Amino acid sequence: MTTDGDRYERGLEALRTLMGRDRGPTPAPEEPPSAADLHRVFIEHCYGDSWARPGLDMKTKSLVTVAILATLGAERELKIHIRGAHNMGVTKDQLVDLLIHIAGYSGVPRAVHAARLAREVWREMDGR
Amino acid sequence: MTTDGDRYERGLEALRTLMGRDRGPTPAPEEPPSAADLHRVFIEHCYGDSWARPGLDMKTKSLVTVAILATLGAERELKIHIRGAHNMGVTKDQLVDLLIHIAGYSGVPRAVHAARLAREVWREMDGR
Amino acid sequence: MTTDGDRYERGLEALRTLMGRDRGPTPAPEEPPSAADLHRVFIEHCYGDSWARPGLDMKTKSLVTVAILATLGAERELKIHIRGAHNMGVTKDQLVDLLIHIAGYSGVPRAVHAARLAREVWREMDGR
Amino acid sequence: MTTDGDRYERGLEALRTLMGRDRGPTPAPEEPPSAADLHRVFIEHCYGDSWARPGLDMKTKSLVTVAILATLGAERELKIHIRGAHNMGVTKDQLVDLLIHIAGYSGVPRAVHAARLAREVWREMDGR
Amino acid sequence: MTTDGDRYERGLEALRTLMGRDRGPTPAPEEPPSAADLHRVFIEHCYGDSWARPGLDMKTKSLVTVAILATLGAERELKIHIRGAHNMGVTKDQLVDLLIHIAGYSGVPRAVHAARLAREVWREMDGR
Amino acid sequence: MTTDGDRYERGLEALRTLMGRDRGPTPAPEEPPSAADLHRVFIEHCYGDSWARPGLDMKTKSLVTVAILATLGAERELKIHIRGAHNMGVTKDQLVDLLIHIAGYSGVPRAVHAARLAREVWREMDGR
């Protein structure tokens, strides 16, 4: 039987692989102590429970994640995961293909929005 | 039989209790006169028809409102109602519990987004 | 440190309190063995991580859950949680108040839909 | 100053024009007395406050309503309003044009869903 | 049989009529060559396939588009299409009526958000 | 330059590969002639413009499609694409992994809904 600690550590490791950094709980002075539980939940639900599973490779999962976040219209998280997708080896051309898929299934406004964020990520990647 | 005027006044009073201020129609020069009807609708649908009803207390309603706005991904309104929830006596710890609930039911990205706004509200509350 | 087993057991107990029954994993012949992990995730994310926390009482949480599910337009889960809300002591009048709140914030179609499911639950509760 | 009664009556009249029938509150035995308030809210928010206004004609409003309900994925209300749109003089060809618009903006799955409901309405209209 | 070129040109012409400008593909240095396909898809799905069709006039389509974008909570696209609606002859009063309709069907938060963007457009139109 | 005919044919071929059948326009007696354009739009936007592109393989696209449809809560289309995903070689275990990912990002209710449809598809696949 695994412990919650295992799950959390496994999640942080997946996050490190995806984003090249550790985005674990960083308690802020305005947060109550219980906010640590919230940060754990974020890491455990997405990273410990899903990203750390081996059934689908991380490149595929990052494409799926970008598609979900674009469909939800979740701006900030979407930009982070477009970068994550490129970290996992998704090419710009493949991201364009994904955005065309999103346009058909989630509607053009969601894809236009995601395309604008992709250009921001690309500019940062190109060092412009 | 109540009049629309009653409904509107009742709504403004509920709004005053919740937000500590009166956010009724403030006509702007660029608005057509009919915009006054729009502002009335906003106050009447939410405040006159719901917040002013006695069946559920205002603290409970403010938790429900935060959950709905987080699920919709409605940024600005969400921040206003996180503050409103604290005005109604919701503690930071209880808001954290609500965010954990939202993470499970509406997905982690919606809860992450709401948590960021909560930190902004908390910083303002703490006078930082 | 708690173990995943604790979390799961805590979740099942909360589910039992809310629904008067144990809705834990019931493997079906068509499911692969890994589906057990999926059922655990469902219990753990919602029940183990949130419902089992003591910060907000279960009656409040059930009102919040109904509001989220109505906003999402999630039919089947919504009906289950309307029943759960009544199990936690929410009165029919309080549920009506919640539906009026949902009409204002999530729009009338979401509330109409929830009201239809509420009538189904009420008929079953009344033994009609 | 108008009274709530005016608003409600005005709404019922708009509903009668649109649907060719009066869909006002029909209390069911399982409903608590307060459910009458909920039915009033449904009529007042949509019909008394919007459909009864003269700024946009009812044909235009019915096209807008179908588009919103398709975007929300609200099945039952959507079918009722597709019929309403035809009652207001929208032709089948115009509804097809609307569905093509919805496909672009809300995504193909929402339009496919609406097209299936349109075929059901059309079969009923054709007496098949 | 039309060619894809026809469809794209037809779309650009509809866009020109609606927005008073040509918003066709403007390749940015950070974009891969395949991004041109994405821009074509945006123009073709919305403008070539829908706006260029004659069944519904452009004024009606612009009201429908504003309603969809408000329902989706798509901020930037919504502002562009509020301006487009006014270009097509929608008056400020008619836009207010549309926002009241959106409040009823998509909920007050979506309408509040759209009203804020409308005020921005109106200020720009008034040259303030 | 390709013609619309190419696009449509390319789309039908992708659809045939994915679903093992041709789901092109089948005019029903209740449909106006213009409905043929609607069916073309459905095929062209999703299949001709996206599925037929070579940048992402069809297995990956089918996982992305299931994730989008689950996030939208689109019942019927979701079931069709769960079957499509299995046609493209996605294993039951991989689908479970996808559902766990959806639970984290789009919330447990969306994943529970998709899991119920997956069991229906699995029963049909197993010949039960």
Task: Write a structural description.
Six copies of one chain form a homohexamer. By secondary structure, chain A is an all-alpha fold. Chain A folds into two domains: 1-55, no CATH class; 57-128, AhpD-like. Chain A has six helices and no strands. Chain A has helices at residues 4-19, 35-51, 58-72, 75-87, 92-106, 108-125. In chain A, α3 (58-72) packs antiparallel against α4 (75-87), α3 (58-72) crosses α5 (92-106) and α5 packs antiparallel against α6 (108-125). The longest helix of chain A has 18 residues, at 108-125. The model of chain A has no long low-confidence stretch (mean pLDDT 93). The A-F interface holds A 45-46, 49-51, 53, 55-56, 60-61, 63-65, 67-69, 71-72, 91, 93-94, 96-98, 100-106 and F 45-46, 49-51, 53, 55-56, 60-61, 63-65, 67-69, 71-72, 91, 93-94, 96-98, 100-106.
Give short descriptive properties of this protein.
AhpD-like; mainly alpha; 2 domains; 128 residues; 6 helices; homohexamer
